[in-house]
Design goal:
Elements (H helix, E strand, L loop, with lengths): L6 E12 L13 E4 L21 E2 L5 E2 L2 E10 L8 E3 L6 E2 L5 E3 L12 E8 L9 E7 L10 E5 L4 E4 L1 E6 L7 E8 L6
Parallel strand pairs: 6-8, 7-9
Antiparallel strand pairs: 1-2, 1-5, 3-4, 9-14, 10-13, 11-12, 11-14
């Protein structure tokens, strides 16, 4: 997988599949598919990603061998040429309403935050639009597995997502016209 310069690869989904139609090597509805996100490892801050896959015997698919590997990914910009569309997550009280942009933590791209921050930012779009959101460079430490101390928390009217650690994440399409993003760092941890 390869993206253009100033973009990074973020894998949305990966799965081994057993084709329902004999001889097919691509996904069709009704295939037996098994999540394989743990098979995907991409380098951080890279515009390309190589994945080496072998056939897998899938117990969930009647012990058949996979006939293909299906992957969905996005090329996500890490830089934008219009600085008016770069937003500080801690500029509390102002709503983001533009069609695209990049939200950054205080001090980014520095990896270590030395002060405590709790920031909330709202993104609002017209009802006829869909929000696409990616975490392209998350590096927040948290002592617990539930990200209680340090996290990025995204809330829409249907679901919530809490993330910490070092990861990239492509959120599902967000059907709400408004989302709230909370950024919380309480320890001297990487950002």
């Amino acid at each position: 997988m390869r993206c253009s310069n100033n973009n990074i690869v973020i894998v949305r989904s990966a799965s081994h599949g057993v084709a329902r139609i004999s001889g097919s090597c691509s996904y069709t509805p009704g295939d037996c598919i098994i999540d394989a996100m743990n098979s995907v490892t991409c380098l951080n801050d890279s515009n390309q990603c190589s994945i080496y896959i072998t056939k897998q015997k899938l117990s969930q698919c009647n012990d058949q061998y996979s006939s293909y590997f299906h992957i969905e990914y996005d090329c996500v910009p890490i830089q934008i040429n219009d600085t008016s569309k770069e937003y500080n997550i801690c500029q509390n009280g102002t709503e983001i309403t533009t069609d695209n942009g990049i939200i950054r933590s205080p001090g980014y791209p520095s990896h270590f935050q030395i002060t405590t921050f709790e920031c909330v930012r709202t993104i609002h779009v017209p009802n006829n639009k869909i929000i696409r959101l990616w975490l392209s460079d998350l590096y927040i430490g948290s002592e617990s597995t539930n990200c209680a101390n340090d996290h990025v928390y995204v809330v829409d009217n249907i679901q919530t997502h809490r993330h910490c650690g070092h990861k990239r994440y492509a959120y599902p399409y967000i059907c709400s016209s408004t989302i709230i993003i909370q950024y919380l760092v309480t320890t001297n941890s990487p950002t």
